[in-house]
Amino acid sequence: MDYQNRAGSKFGGGGVASQSATNADRRERLRKLALETIDLDKDPYFFKNHVGSFECRLCLTVHQNDGSYLAHTQGRKHQTNLARRAAKDQREGRGDRDGFQPGMGQQVQVRKNVIKIGRPGYKITKIRDPLTRQQGLLFQLLYPEIASGVVPRIRFMSAYEQKVEDPDNTYQYLLVAAEPYEICGFKLQAREVDKREGKYWTWFDEDLKEFWIQVLFKTEREERYSGVPGLAPSGPRR
């Protein structure tokens, strides 16, 4: 960086760089260093979102351009998270799985961004357990173009985790993901799900490409007295 001709400095002198100029110079040096060691096409944590920004899936950060992302990969936060991920993979015996070795400048498996083809078709049916009278929902999702070997995955998410609408603690969300389809989300009442055997289950029909989810909510009595010591769970009504 050229520090000449700054206010208050002599001609030909270095001058004193401001803090912002020093930071900009540091980021540029980190970006150039990263360009020599990282191929973004082979970086499993690099992701370009729908608004054109770049995300780091490891650190959950957002960057306005690739230079900012490259500088981030050389920073302390990213390197610390890489070390933690490597230690975790080593403990779980996944350190060299599929040719992936986390770390700067190492060869990684090519993982390109999957092109989404839209949301799946779905049908929702209200159900009630004939014995316990528990209310619930039965989801049927259609994935005719699902990728080979992929089984849909589900996750329950609280209202405070999502960023689509204002949080409301009376609701929760059920997310269903299956590449190459977009993630499908369903807004449910924030009631406790009964995850006992036979009450909550999922099933994927590989022949018909249909994914089924049954969700039954606990009764008001079970929610009220759940976890109370010495209180046995209520059985089916006679």
TrEMBL record:
GO terms for cellular component: catalytic step 2 spliceosome; U2 snRNP; U2-type prespliceosome. Transmembrane segments: none annotated. Residues 1-25, 72-104 are annotated as: Disordered. It is found in: Nucleus. One of its GO terms (molecular function) is nucleic acid binding. Residues 86-99 have a biased composition (Basic and acidic residues). This is Matrin-type domain-containing protein. It comes from Rhizodiscina lignyota.
